[in-house]
């Protein structure tokens, strides 16, 4: 799990990067929760997603937004953090020029940042959004949503009521060619226990491997 420092728009950013042995391995960017509420790249869900993507054979990066840990700069209300994430993708693509697919996965505020990144990078192949803060931010920018993905939420989320996320999912699913895999965990709040976190990343793996396997089958059929 080598430590990396890469150039961001407001200074150097601190990350952890795993490089797959496969030359054309898919790549994934993992985004952490809100920096003003204790979010870092070592958050339990963020770290677990990083490990699981690594186990699936991805080259994968998690990093600290500006002003978090040893990353330079200061919090920028979400705008700068989206730019930081795009710099993370630049880093991933520079060291993985032959990547077969590009994914973004985020938890809470990181899910919001990840969806913003989707709109800026049309080459994205899929996304995983955990506890997306649909009641706190306007997700109307997803028009149209550029690709399919997984949205996962706790049924008893006390910060982001589940109906607000279901409304977002229903809206996205009306878009032509878009199918959102929406999964709700009974009894889960916004912060997941270690046992719940394992189920979160199990769901992410199930979704991601399903997409990758369909992609391989389509290529084999050509």
UniProtKB/TrEMBL annotation:
Keyword Hydrolase (UniProt): yes
UniProt KW keywords: Hydrolase
UniProt GO BP: proteolysis
Gene Ontology MF: a single term: serine-type peptidase activity
SUPFAM superfamilies in the cross-refs: alpha/beta-Hydrolases
Start and end residues of each Peptidase S9 prolyl oligopeptidase catalytic domain: 147-198
Keyword Hydrolase on entry: yes
Sequence ranges assigned to domain Serine aminopeptidase S33 in this UniProt record: 36-135
Name of the protein this chain belongs to: Alpha/beta hydrolase
């Amino acid at each position: 799990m080598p430590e990396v420092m890469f150039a961001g728009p407001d200074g150097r950013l601190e990350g952890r990067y795993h490089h797959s042995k496969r030359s054309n391995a898919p790549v994934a960017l993992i985004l952490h929760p809100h920096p003003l509420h204790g979010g870092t790249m070592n958050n339990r869900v963020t770290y677990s997603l990083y490990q699981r993507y690594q186990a699936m054979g991805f080259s994968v990066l998690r990093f600290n937004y500006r002003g978090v840990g040893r990353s330079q700069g200061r919090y920028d209300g979400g705008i700068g953090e989206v730019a930081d994430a795009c710099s993370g993708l630049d880093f991933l693509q520079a060291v993985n020029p032959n990547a077969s697919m590009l994914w973004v996965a985020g938890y809470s505020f990181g899910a919001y940042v990840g969806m913003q990144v989707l709109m800026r990078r049309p080459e994205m192949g899929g996304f995983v959004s955990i506890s997306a803060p649909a009641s706190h931010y306007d997700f109307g920018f997803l028009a149209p949503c550029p690709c399919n993905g997984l949205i996962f939420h706790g049924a008893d989320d006390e910060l982001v009521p589940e109906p607000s996320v279901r409304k977002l999912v229903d809206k996205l699913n009306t878009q032509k060619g878009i199918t959102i895999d929406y999964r709700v965990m009974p009894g889960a709040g916004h912060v997941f226990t270690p046992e719940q976190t394992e189920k979160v990343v199990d769901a992410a793996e199930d979704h991601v491997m399903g997409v990758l396997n369909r992609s391989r089958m389509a290529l084999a059929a050509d």
